[in-house]
Design brief:
With 275 residues, the protein is an alpha/beta fold. The protein is globular.
Length: 275
């Protein structure tokens, strides 16, 4: 029988974070976004200050690095990814230069404390083990040294073995968050990207519609073809693209949520965009 674990909400789990704490976030696609958002909500409410955030490269938004959180969250990253590069260069975040192979040592020797590790894991097996999936790196050491471990259980996390496997008894709080729309969202973004890149008579018209949106202006880069960094920045824009594309390419009144966009895409919006 699969070991039963008790779930709580992200809002409840992040209550263990105190002012002055050092927080580790798991890396890349395993960044625990629901916990990050709940932590930032506490910051906006004035409940936290001088909280240090550590991680390697993460995908998706990094709201704790926003300049508005100066004095609330201090990002001291081990790797400067595209989602935090601008704020780091602007002086609102710091970078700890270190070899990837040595990041675990920072936690184990105590050079960098870890009060709370916020991670994402696979569902537990019948023995109670979960997998860290795509983020072992410094996360394993953070789990082993943290005062509290908060884990988002996501059934889509791949089950990696070896040192990626940890027992659920090492985790203090479990939060359920299955993002089941990932494949569909990826197909939507790929389709829109192919449309934008198609060299036909309407090529410039489509791009003019994109750049007419004020939300896109910060992604404009004159040194790049089409003023766009597809490989680095398009990932950061994919949710924006999903939400805004009906307004750009259809005569409807737009939509307010990703769910509606995905439904429209399935129901023929993709065909409309192709013309």
């Amino acid at each position: 029988m699969t070991t039963q674990i008790k779930f709580t909400t992200a809002e409840e789990a992040v209550k263990v974070i105190k002012s002055g704490d050092h927080i580790h976030l798991s890396s890349v696609a395993s960044a625990p976004q629901c916990l990050i958002n709940a932590m930032c909500a506490r910051g906006e409410a004035g409940e936290l200050k001088d909280v240090h955030v550590h991680h390697l490269h993460t995908e998706g938004p990094a709201p704790y690095a926003d300049p508005k959180f100066e004095g609330v969250f201090q990002l001291d990253s081990f790797f400067v990814g595209g989602n935090v590069r601008k704020v780091t260069q602007s002086g609102y975040a710091d970078y700890i230069p270190i070899f990837l192979s040595e990041t675990q040592r920072l936690y184990r020797c105590g050079a960098v404390p870890c009060n709370v590790a916020m991670i994402q894991v696979s569902t537990p097996d019948k023995h109670g083990f979960v997998s860290l999936g795509t983020s072992v790196d410094a996360t394993l050491a953070a789990v082993e040294t943290a005062d509290y471990v908060l884990a988002v259980v996501n059934k889509h996390v791949p089950r990696a073995f070896g040192q990626a496997m940890i027992h659920s008894s090492k985790i203090d709080y479990f939060v359920q968050d299955d993002d089941g729309a990932g494949d569909l969202r990826g197909k939507l973004v790929d389709s829109i990207q192919r449309c934008l890149e198609r060299r036909d008579a309407a090529y410039q018209t489509r791009w003019d519609k994109v750049w007419a949106s004020a939300l896109c202006q910060k992604y404009r880069r004159p040194e790049s073809e089409d003023y766009w960094l597809w490989r680095e920045r398009f990932l950061m824009l994919r949710f924006l693209i999903c939400r805004q594309s009906p307004r750009w390419f259809s005569e409807g009144d737009g939509c307010e949520s990703e769910r509606i966009v995905l439904e429209r895409w399935r129901d023929g919006f993709g065909a409309a965009l192709a013309h």
